[in-house]
Amino acid sequence: MTKPAELKGSSFTLSALHLVDGDIEKATDFLKEKVSQAPNFFAAAPVVIDISQAGNNIDFSTLKSEVQKAGMIPVGISGCKDTQLQSQAKRAGFAIMNAARQTKAAETAMEPTRIIRTPVRSGQQIYAKNCDLVVMNHVSAGAEIIADGCIHIYGTMRGRAIAGASGQQQARIFCQNLQSELISIAGNYWLSDKIEAEFWGKGVVISLAENNLNIEHLAL
Fold first, then answer.
1. Closest residue by Cα to residue 15 from 85, 74, 80
2. Which residues form the domain of 27?
């Protein structure tokens, strides 16, 4: 007999909104700005709200509705150990989430590098699961390339590059011509407006240090 459905464990990369001082309006104004800057990446994207620094006076119903109005989908809260706050969040429709352990990514057996020889066109998404990704051509604006390991782009990079998608903080992005909409390693990301002019259109290597992205010129 065919099963009607299956429930399996899986892992996904989610954006996290850190509610620093409990100011919901300020936080959602920030979200609106990010959605307008990169709608292909953030519009209707799931987001987890970290409330570890937000205090104990949080209107979860307002938080949920305002995040939705900003254009993203609130799926849960993290950074909450107070059972009373957890109950309030659940009543508002939030899941209670714990940060994933980064050690699991390091233990995952890596597979052979995935190589893409053709251009990656707008609207395409390529995911290299448990391996590095090499793109020997251009990546168009609106395209997305994702790898659990490192990413190498030998053409112009105009789309979104997400390395270390399963949490591998040692992942790198190597790019011959950086003009990217978004770059990300292990969940830490920059939009194009954060990329300094000296690196725009140049060969670079992007790494992660203490949860901050770092860009260096690619030595030839």
1. 74
2. 15-96
Looking at the whole model, is its pTM more than 0.70? no
* pLDDT tens digits, 120-177: 999 899 999 999 999 999 999 999 999 999 999 999 999 999 999 888 999 999 999 9
Side-chain-side CA neighbours of 216 within 13 Å: the count stands at 8
Domain containing residue 124: CATH number: 2.160.20.70
Task: Using the structure block, give the residue that is written with the tokens 């260096």.
Answer: 216
What tokens were used for 56?
């104990």
- When mean pLDDT is compared across 87-91, 100-104, 214-218, the lowest value belongs to 100-104
**Bridge partners, residue 50, by sequence:** 18, 78
The tokens for 146 are 């994702």
Q: What's the full length of the chain, in residues?
A: 220
Residue type, 125: Q
| Tally of structural domains, the chain | 2
Residue 75 token pair: 């799926």
Residue 183: both structure tokens together: 């770059």
Note the maximum CA span of the chain: 61
Please give the span between the terminal C-alpha atoms of the chain, in angstroms, as a whole number.
60
- The dihedral region occupied by 143, where left means phi > 0, alpha psi between -120 and 50, and beta the remainder, is beta
